[in-house]
Amino acid sequence: MKIVYIIHGTYNTAGMERTLSIKANYFADVLGYEVFIITTDQRNRPAYYILSKKIRCVDLDVNFDQYYNKPLLISIFSFLIKQFICKVRLTRKLHELKADIVISMMGRIISFLPKINDGSKKIFEYHFNRYVREQMLENSTWFKKLVYRIRANSELKNVEKLDSFVVLTHEDASMWGNFRNIQVIPNAISFFTKENAKLDNKIVISVGRFEHQKGYDMLLSIWKPVVKKYPDWKLIVYGDGSKRDSIMAQVNKEGLNESLIIKDPVSNIESALLDASIYLMTSRYEGFPMVLVEAMACGLPVVSFRCPCGPADIIRHNEDGFLIENGDVEKMSEYLSLLIKNEVLRKKAGELARVNITRFTQDVVMSKWEALFKDLIAKK
User: Fold this and answer.
1) 64-72 contacts at long range (C-beta below 8 A, 24 or more positions apart)
2) What's 214's DSSP letter?
3) HSE-up of 340 (CA within 13 Å, CB side)?
């Protein structure tokens, strides 16, 4: 079977690139599929996550990111030109490859992807949630919101023309309505450790980009009352992003730099997770937070906002972790304190997290993808 993935680039440290590497490597190395990754904005940058040598990568040199951060009208005009270039180059490449399955991880190309008559089955794999644009544009101008709403409605119509539309959670699927082609396939765990985290170290860990989505601006409000009661505990955050410096400045101003430590992101987070005792997630919205699953695979109990979407599909409240009403920092502090204070509860939740998360192992999740591919090809 020949499979083609289409993505902006593989150089980012984000979850979408991480999950792509997991799936593409599995298809190439375990199942022996012929796998291609087509990018639009790679620009000779190396992939951040390791890709199998069997995978062939092709960049279309469209560079959509060149229209970012420009005035809106110029941005719209630039996008339309880039979109046309992408359509021409992608059409040519797909006719050349003649794949069985083409999976787009980019929403911007589904306006023309179903129309490319290369004989492949077309899938759109959506890594966010139904209302992510509204969440991202919460503080934007009315005109920008209108433009993006028009674009979102256009994409919505084209989703129905695809052979399959894959979302990551049942919560998100319920938001989309009665699409005939919708499927729920979660992300797979990238690793499953041989041993549990011991949960004895006085460390709370969080991993993510310092952007509005991840909610790290709420860290001080969450952590200050916790560290006041338990001054020997530390919160370590691994990440980078546009808001990192401002949050670090706040941490220093509040004199919390000894207990709230910010570190650079690492490609192998496994050892850091195993060294911690609790995982904290403060996101305002998600698609399917991979690091939350990975933390639980290491045997960490988790405390997370019940943001749309992902945590409610992953965490079993009061069993392997706690789901807190989105944005309720006081409750977040309370449940963090509960896990810190109650070692028996912490270790029991960690054990259950490791057991419950086996439903996201690679073999389980990838069998769902394999079944989908075979079903679509059988309908040719």
Assistant:
1) 64/8, 64/40, 64/108, 65/8, 65/41, 72/143, 72/144, 72/147
2) G
3) 23
pLDDT on residue 252: 93
Intervals of the chain under pLDDT 50: none
Cβ(125)–Cβ(110) under 8 Å?
no
The answer to whether 298 and 196 are in contact (CB under 8 A) is yes
17/40 Cα distance (integer angstroms): 14
Q: What is the pLDDT at residue 266? A: 86
For residue range 229-241, list pLDDT tens digits in order. Answer: 999 999 999 999 9
Cα(348)–Cα(12) distance, integer angstroms: 35
Residue 200 carries which side chain, given as an amino acid letter? D
Q: What tokens does 155 get?
A: 């994409």
pLDDT of residue 83: 92
Biggest alpha carbon–alpha carbon distance for the chain = 64
Contact, 123 vs 102, CB < 8 A?
yes
pLDDT at 244: 95
Helix then strand then coil, in percent of the chain rounded to 5, is 45, 15, 40
Q: List beta partners, residue 261.
A: 236
CA distance 58 to 307: 36
Do residues 360 and 192 make contact, with C-beta atoms less than 8 angstroms apart?
Answer: no
Distance between CA atoms of residues 366 and 155, nearest Å: 27
The pLDDT of residue 163: 96
Q: What is the CA radius of gyration of the chain?
A: 21
